[in-house]
Amino acid sequence: MSVGGASDTVLKLADISVRFPSGADWLGRATSHVHALNGVNLDVRRGETLGIVGESGCGKSTLAQVLLGLLQPSAGQVTGAAAGDESALQIVFQDPQSSLNSRMRVWRVITEPVFARQRKSTSELRRLAVELAAKVGLREETLDRYPHEFSGGQRQRIAIARALSSDPDVIVLDEPTSALDISVQAQILNLLEALQRDRNLTYIFISHDISVISHMCRRVAVMYLGQIVEIGAASDLLTRPRHPYTQLLLGSVPTLGEEGLGELIEDTELPSNRRLPSGCFFFDRCAFSKPVCRQPQRLIAGVRCCRADELANAGFP
Amino acid sequence: MRKSVLDIDNLSLEFPVYGGAVSAVNRVSLHVQEGEIVGIVGESGSAKSVTAMTAMRLLPRESFHIRSGRITLLGHDMLALDEQKLAAMRGRDVAMIFQEPLTALNPTKRVGAQMLGVIRLHTRLSEREARLHAIKLLTDMRINDAEEILQRYPFELSGGMRQRILIGLAFACSPKLLIADEPTTALDVTVQKQVLQLLRKKARELNTAILFICHDLAVVSQFCDRLYVMYAGSVVETGPTRAVLSAPQHPYTRALIRALPESARPGQALRSIRGVVPNLTDMPTGCAFQERCDHAFEACSSIPPLFSLDDEKRASACWLCEKEHAA
Hints:
The complex is a heterodimer of chains A (about 325) and B (about 325).
Chain A: E1 9-24, E2 30-45, E3 49-53, H1 60-68, E4 75-79, E5 89-92, H2 106-117, H3 122-136, H4 152-164, E6 170-174, H5 182-199, E7 202-206, H6 210-216, E8 219-224, E9 227-233, H7 234-237, H8 244-252, H9 308-314
Parallel strand pairs in A: 3-7, 3-8, 5-6, 6-7
Antiparallel strand pairs in A: 1-2, 1-4, 8-9
Chain B: E1 4-17, E2 20-33, E3 37-41, H1 48-55, E4 65-73, E5 76-77, H2 83-89, E6 94-97, H3 101-104, H4 111-122, H5 127-140, H6 146-149, H7 159-170, E7 177-181, H8 189-206, E8 209-214, H9 217-223, E9 226-231, E10 234-240, H10 241-246, H11 251-258, E11 307-308, E12 315-316, H12 319-326
Parallel strand pairs in B: 3-8, 3-9, 6-7, 7-8
Antiparallel strand pairs in B: 1-2, 1-4, 4-5, 9-10, 10-12, 11-12
Helix pairs in contact in B: 4-5, 5-7, 7-8
């Protein structure tokens, strides 16, 4: 992990683990656990966009819930200026269809975070909604409609306006453009960048789309099986990956103009997160594993692989 | 000259709705030849899926109205074929895989029972032979313990595994055409790559043509031989994949590629396409893209047909391309 301190840390995760009980015996005691996060250390710095990438089941969304305080970690601590402050933390979800209340008029949806926590008159809330709608590019006359009357891109604008209403410091963006078309995605990403500049927002940008991450983020963390396997500046990490998993992930991303599909990938099944591997979590899928990898791996200088330097120097032979 | 598998000629289709009609497909012509991998790209509402579903007559009978055009699939007139013949064709001559593998599998039946059911419906194999065939199909899809997988229920398997089972099953009767509707959209990138690799390998082996519907230009660029770009129910551009994506001619294709995050430097604003997709119940007269197009001029008020651009089968539905090409 890079040295913090100099820059202002808004959220700090220290050795966070989350496990969910699974199955129960006759006394209702859990018979096994699903290990969603396994020792995550992370600093979120004020004003940055921190990207979090990884495949499904790697713990991205659990991490988002821990950051927001929606989920108490089984072990570890969340500290920092914004920790535990409901108004300072907001989230935008992937699916604007299910994350907006379909029975509320849009201006109610937008001001709900304020309505829930502060006593404000209807006219004040309405004024706030008008102001926020203008910020995200919604027309004022549409505020009395219901969410289903809007397109996917417009609904995502509503979700962003709602996130802004409590004047937060940190917004967690959980796959905010994955359900949108390319042309609409471009509009939403531009909007998010403009809002960040205006309001000095901190974004935690969760996505599986490497091209979006590379466009939006200065710093990126790669997750695998509930751990951060690599973290660093986006420009370095995405061009010169050091962890074999990052290497595999980036190598699988389809790119425009590249022809053919390369060598056949043999094994794509993730190990179970019920019984964690004892050594390196990536051992079974790693093309470079050696007996030395059977010991637990620590995150050293931003990469969780004991052979990282050796492999990077040899150019992943 | 290779044999033609699917020919859609000048197809226009609308869905009647209260007080009007949604013009979902407008004058679409699309051709797939034997063994060819053809992509359809476009954003939501561009009629990618409707076109493919119509080709297999999968839309509910009363829900649509064909205004014009014809569809020929393996020599059969698909708009005239009776339900019994259709049922025999589907799964045997033409197979389909969808985006969400969980909804395509029956949750109450073991994988084996479902696979055997399909195989035995279309072939004269015995139970034991069908089982061996199923195991071979799964092994070809790089599923190691195929015999054990046959005993499992769909919910016990990962998304990538389910999709590989469906692809294996789609190839069960060596179909002439496989329609794949966003088959990898719900999958992770490493799994996506593997699924695409297996799909292509198997199709080449059996000389199966694939009609590949996708919204991701990067995936299409790696997977397809030829592609059609669709917008608001019409084909706006077509040609060999590399030619179209490296030197797009239609303003919509150009704008779409420019709007990708890869096309801008980090931190730089992305070039989004202004405006919104036209309302399909109230289509503008003339080119459907004119209101969002930076180059619109007088000619755009009438509908542009597909202009052939060169011998390489490239074509673009734009008056500007016609003007430049003529000059």
